[in-house]
Design brief:
The complex is a heterodimer of chains A (about 110) and B (about 120). Chain A is mostly beta strands and about 110 residues long. Chain A is built from no helices and 9 strands. In chain A, a hairpin with a 3-residue loop joins strand 7 and strand 8. Chain B has about 120 residues and is an all-beta fold. Chain B is about 0% helix and about 55% strand. Chain B contains no helices and 11 strands. The chains are: A mainly beta (about 110), B mainly beta (about 120). Chains A and B meet through strand 7 and strand 8 of A and strand 5 and strand 10 of B.
Chain lengths: ~110, ~120
């Protein structure tokens, strides 16, 4: 069970859009629509922002959206704001009742 | 509003057993459709799923930790616990308890604040 692959870092200017990819295999991302995304600010617990590929929990900005194609899921943040600067993690169900996280992406607002 | 709070020693000696408890408020560990989970984060690193327990007592663990980990639940106290034995410095991490929600909304929706456990003599 290997961690899902995310870019180490991405950046964008205020108002722009960025996309973070999350690549797995047919045993996890590609096999199930149970991909979720988490935002983590420094020294804070992760916060759920997307569940089951493209659903937002109540209270999460509609600037966050998710998608999936094959073995790769993606998180898009549109209209970047300073408060979006954080680490982002993807997560997926994997075979045999296990779950796997991505390595995390540090998102910087320039 | 569900709240989770981790508690336990912040320092554990190598080869000993790490023991943490998560107290749940605003919800019940016996509720159907929720899996009570442990996740850790090594300093400066990513998240690692450790395992979870369901209200039936069924447990599922990460293959990489399965031989050393045990998760249990105390319904009378509305708590669930983690035990990790034979720890080494590589087990130094922030440990989070979390609720995994099912019912068509699979995700870790509530998290504790996390507790740092350092393995050192």
């Amino acid at each position: 069970q290997s961690a899902l692959t995310q870019p180490a870092s991405v950046s964008g200017s205020p108002g722009q859009s960025i996309t973070i990819s999350c690549t797995g295999t047919s045993s996890d991302v590609g096999g199930y629509n149970y991909v979720s995304w988490y935002q983590q600010h420094p020294a804070k617990a992760p916060k759920l922002i997307i569940y089951e590929v493209n659903n937002r929990p109540s209270g999460v900005s509609n600037r966050f959206s998710g998608s999936k194609s094959g073995n790769t899921a993606s998180l898009t943040i549109s209209g970047l704001q300073a408060e979006d600067e954080a680490d982002y993690y993807c997560n997926s169900y994997s075979n045999n009742n296990t779950w796997v996280f991505g390595g995390g992406t540090k998102m910087t607002v320039l | 509003q569900v709240q989770l709070q981790e508690s336990g020693p912040g320092l554990v000696k190598p080869s000993q057993t790490l023991s943490l408890t998560c107290t749940v408020s605003g919800g019940s560990v016996t509720s159907v459709g929720y899996y009570w989970s442990w996740i850790r984060q090594h300093p400066g690193k990513g998240l690692e799923w450790i395992g979870y327990i369901y209200n039936t007592g069924s447990t599922f663990y990460s293959p990489s930790l399965k031989s050393r980990v045990s998760i249990s639940v105390d319904t009378s106290k509305n708590q669930f616990s983690l035990k990790l034995n034979s720890v080494t410095a590589a087990d130094t991490a922030v440990y989070y308890c979390s609720r995994l929600r099912s019912f068509g909304t699979w995700s870790f929706d509530y998290w504790g604040q996390g507790t740092l456990v350092t393995v050192s003599s």
